[in-house]
Design goal:
disordered N terminus, about 20% helix, five-stranded antiparallel β-sheet, isomerase activity, Putative isomerase, alpha+beta, globular, isomerase, signal, 20 strands, about 325 residues
Length: about 325
């Protein structure tokens, strides 16, 4: 498998210069200096959600060769989740949901009203929700070429009910400044059967086989998997789900998200997912340090201006996000 460190020299060849790098520990990451270099916010409302020029309207975070990506909330409606995900269905970006696995928090039966701060840094999406007595900090990173890892740190002085929800998109196509079609995904691709399955530690979404050139390509074996370290009570209603758990005090929990393209990938990734959930901090730190390496390797021009440095960071993020890990014959 390729190493992404090759991307930083390519950024330099594009005459995108950076600042002189210094050594940072995990509490003072270089990446923290580059918030929101790429706008990662969005709220897709169709599987194909395009701008007026028929390009992707949103810029999800893809990393480490993975075939799925995540967004930041564009408004308070998306608070507690990372909109999407965007699935690369072998060749094309298709959104699976508006916001899948969104967290809401309840105290004494009443939904807590949070204030949200959400931003991206190279290699991570970060969201902090605050209210009197309760704070939720969420950090999402990619830790393998198929799996992203969400750390959710909840600080509370009272028992809470945690509620996750999600619903698959039904609309097929939207485009800015164009008449909107009512065509559904099912109408466009009858064979693209999407089914939700509750599991012992999360949720799986399975997808039917479609071989539509230039539109949608799936093997009939692909899955989107969610696994959590906290047991949940999950209810499924067609293309939507709701899952609940109760906590008595502060907690840090972890969630993995995996888009797996074939039955072979599904089998191979399970042991990795189990190890990630057993040693989440090891994987989070490795992801942090991987991105510190990219930045330290690519930002070495002491004469670069701040604006030039941000352009260099954008190049590194973009090139890394465009790289995919190999999958069988794909």
């Amino acid at each position: 498998m390729k190493t992404i460190f090759r991307l930083a020299p390519l950024a330099m060849l594009l005459v995108l210069a950076g600042c002189h790098s210094t050594k940072h520990d995990t509490t003072t990451l270089m990446a923290n200096d580059f918030q929101n270099v790429i706008d990662r916010t969005g709220a897709p409302h169709a599987m194909l959600d395009y701008d007026f020029d028929e390009h992707q309207r949103f810029n999800p975070l893809f990393d480490d060769g993975a075939w799925h990506g995540h967004l930041l909330p564009a408004s308070s409606e998306g608070m507690g989740g990372f909109p999407g995900p965007a699935l690369l269905t072998e060749e094309y970006i298709n959104f699976m949901a508006n916001n899948f696995d969104r967290l809401s928090v309840y105290q004494n039966g009443k939904k807590i009203a949070f204030t949200m701060k959400a931003y991206s840094i190279p290699g991570a999406l970060i969201q902090t929700l605050t209210s009197p007595g309760v704070t939720v900090k969420m950090t999402l990173r990619f830790v393998t070429s198929r799996t992203s890892l969400l750390e959710t740190e909840i600080t509370t002085d009272a028992p809470l009910e945690l509620v996750w929800d999600g619903e698959l998109l039904e609309k097929y196509h939207l485009q800015e400044q164009k008449p909107q079609s009512d065509e559904t995904i099912e109408q466009a691709f009858p064979g693209y059967t999407r089914t939700l399955h509750a599991t012992s530690d999360g949720l799986n979404v399975t997808f039917g086989k479609v071989r539509a050139d230039s539109n949608l390509m799936t093997s009939g074996q692909s899955q989107y998997q969610i696994h959590k370290t906290l047991p949940m009570r999950t209810q499924i209603d067609g293309h939507r789900f709701i899952a609940k758990a109760n906590i008595e005090s502060s907690i840090t929990l972890y969630t993995t998200y995996s888009h797996l393209l074939t039955a072979t990938e599904v089998q191979k990734e399970q042991s990795k997912i189990a190890d990630i959930l057993k040693h989440p901090q090891t994987y989070q730190t490795a992801s942090e340090q991987r991105w510190e390496g990219y930045l330290e390797s690519g930002l070495k021009n002491p004469a670069a201006t701040a604006a030039q440095t941000r352009v260099a960071v954008k190049a590194i993020e973009t090139l890394n996000g465009n790289w995919r890990g190999g999958c069988d014959e794909i």
